[in-house]
Structure formats: C-alpha cells, structure tokens
Write a structure and sequence with these properties.
single chain, alpha+beta
Length: about 210
Amino acid sequence: MSVGGQFRRIGEIGVALALWRSLFWIFLRPKRILIFVLGFILFVVFIVVLTDTTNKKHFVNVEELILLDKPFGQAFKTLEMNDSLIFLKEMGDNWAMVLVGDDTLYFDNKYDYTMSSRKIETTPFTLEKALKNQIVKLNHPDGYFDAYPRMLKNGDEITIIDYSVDKREIKFKVETSSFLYLSIDFVTIDWVNLKERYPRVDFGPF
C-alpha cells in the first residue's frame, strides 16, 4: 500500500473510532439519550417546517396557468407568468389546491418539461430562470475558449446550466469537463426571442 493510501486508511479508522466513541458517550447515560432523541425530533420538525410551502405566496412560473373550479372540472381563471396565488395543499395525482382572491381553485401540478420548471414556485420567474437551459453561441474576443478537454471556437454552441446576475457569468459544462464559467458578454444570445417568449420578465439592461 502506498504512503498516501496508508494515511487515508488511518484517517478512515480515526473517523470510525470517533463515531463509535460519540455513540458510546450518548448511550451510556439515559439523560443523554433523551437529549439526543429530543434534539433529533426538533431537527426533523424544523426541516419539515422549513420546507413546507402550504399557505404561502407563490408565483406562476409558466407562460400561463389554467385554474379549474374542481379537479377535472371547468376552466375558471387563467393566470399569466409571475401572477401570484396562495398554495393551499398538494392533492392526489399531482393536483394542487390554491387560493386566488376569495376563490379556491385547482390545477394539475405535474412538472412542466417544456419549461424545465415547476408550474408555481415561491419565487418569481426571473432572468436567471429564463436563461437556464438556453443554447447560446460562443463569441469570445480571443476567438476561442479553453473548455478542457475541448477547445471551443466562436460559433460553437453552449447550454447554460445557471446564470449569476451579480457576476454576470454563465455556468456550463462541455462533455466530461468540470463546471466552467464565462462572462455573459462572451456569448451570443437571442434576446429578441427571449423577450417575446417571456414578456413579463425583467431583463434589465439586456
């Protein structure tokens, strides 16, 4: 075994021993067991409360959302992107109950693969979401970009994974590369098409 492998093995053994010592320390006294169990229960309750979005304001994250008077019922109201509503509860077969004004309405909340988005979310549909999964073309001032293991040239297509407004950077991958970052000024984006598709999104200076 190499020296590096020996150190790694020693580290694994040390972590395992530390975990066993922690467990023995907890379970040797009933008071510690009680504190541990109560702490675990409080942690689970905290996570559930933190992730529970019922009775909270949501925003439409698709181009339009048709709300029915009941599951499988008649269309009652249509909301557009970034209109708000209150999410009441998730129902069987992905149906959702929501509140719009004084009306309790329903819609099929299956994931929208065409938009690569949930139909309603706790945040509005923003520029970052609009750019996600968009295919753009490299337009680097050097004429190329080293996206190891590939070398990209201007005109090559890139799929945006994420976008940072603060850094003005897109995040992407090329084949087996790690995550790569590039200024949004170094790619060509069809802004006209995006603005036509998402007229209720604030594109800022673009």
